[in-house]
């Protein structure tokens, strides 16, 4: 009754795999273009999310950690999780000066 189902499944999976290959290729091309633009304008990848000196000062005081995360998000456009990870990593590098 459903003799066509295996062929249909193979067809659907094959089409899905083909689409993934196309998407992967397009992403590779866009990444290459973006890397070329970044090199042309002298932008280093890690420098895009560098906190300001003001934020670095806030990080030293544990009571201002939330304010530092907010300020980092405003300055960089980073998401909450990314901002928290950056601020926490910097706080570990530079221990607080006390309460």
- Which secondary-structure class do the elements indicate? mainly alpha
Q: Give me the count of strands.
A: 0
What distance lies between the first and last C-alpha atoms, to the nearest angstrom? Answer: 75 Å
How many helices in DSSP terms? Answer: 4
Residue fraction in strands:
under 5%
Please, what is the oligomeric state? single chain
Shape category: elongated
Task: Describe the overall structure.
The model has no long low-confidence stretch (mean pLDDT 86). Helix 3 (65-76) crosses helix 4 (80-93). The protein is 70% helix and 0% strand. The chain is built from 4 helices and no strands. With 99 residues, the protein is mostly helical. The protein folds into 2 domains: 1-43; 46-93. The longest helix is centred in the N-terminal third of the chain and has 36 residues, at 5-40. The termini are far apart.
What is the strand and helix layout of this fold?
Elements: H1 5-40, H2 53-59, H3 65-76, H4 80-93
Helix pairs in contact: 2-3, 3-4
Brief summary:
By secondary structure, the chain is mainly α. The protein has helices spanning 5-40, 53-59, 65-76, 80-93.
Tag the structure with descriptive keywords.
2 domains; 4 helices; single chain; elongated; 99 residues
